[in-house]
């Protein structure tokens, strides 16, 4: 099999610099990101799953995955090249609400639109592009995608209080404190459920069992801490990993590169990932 690579432009708020990652490092592990993932296929065919459903995207098509959606990295029988941006949800929200007051549902996970794909490929082109120009290109591509493929969300009443069940409560607890070690047995017993039932219901709701979801969330939070300058060992401890080796191993499964790549980029004055 040919080595497949992609280019990431990532960052909090605005995309950052370029990282090329080997897809073999993480393609088989279901995972999620805390950002919108938009990829433009340059050539080849990318096979992947979202929420357990198989999809394929080919040259000229876009891949769109919402924050929190569990997916697998793309596989390819031959050479595959695509460029992907991770967009902070707040930055995405600013764009969608410019066009739709109550937000929009963006079609996906595969959008067939060759012209938009070319626009994203240009916005995510490798090489030296001034940050302001890079931001303007990505912003224009995002506006174009939302205008062409976004469906307005109608305003409605907020969900009634008290509807959250034990799965939602568990997720909220883990999201608020990644270093926590939730007592699944106690939570299940409090709701007159068996632990296995709770785990299965959580997996159906959020795409991963509680411990796998928490492990993924810890990596996402660690990435934020590392970009802020916290040492690797301290970041691992802050989010609940046993040590930095454990964080490094899971980080590579989720992001396709070890955190050392991120640290090296930060030392050079750039902010990759």
Report what the structure shows.
With 273 residues, the chain is an alpha+beta fold. It folds into two domains: 5-152, Jelly Rolls (Sandwich); 166-267, Orthogonal Bundle (Arc Repressor Mutant, subunit A). The protein is 43% helix and 19% strand. The chain is built from ten helices and ten strands. The protein has helices at 89-99, 114-123, 131-149, 166-176, 184-190, 195-206, 210-227, 232-239, 244-255, 259-267, and strands at 5-10, 18-22, 36-43, 45-50, 53-58, 61-65, 81-87, 104-106, 110-112, 150-152. The strands form three sheets. A six-stranded mixed sheet has the order 2-1-7-3-6-9. The chain has a two-stranded antiparallel sheet with strand order 4-5. The chain has a two-stranded antiparallel sheet with strand order 8-10. Strand 4 and strand 5 form a beta hairpin. Helix 5 (184-190) packs across helix 6 and helix 7 runs antiparallel to helix 8. The longest helix is centred in the middle third of the chain and has 19 residues, at 131-149. The chain is globular.
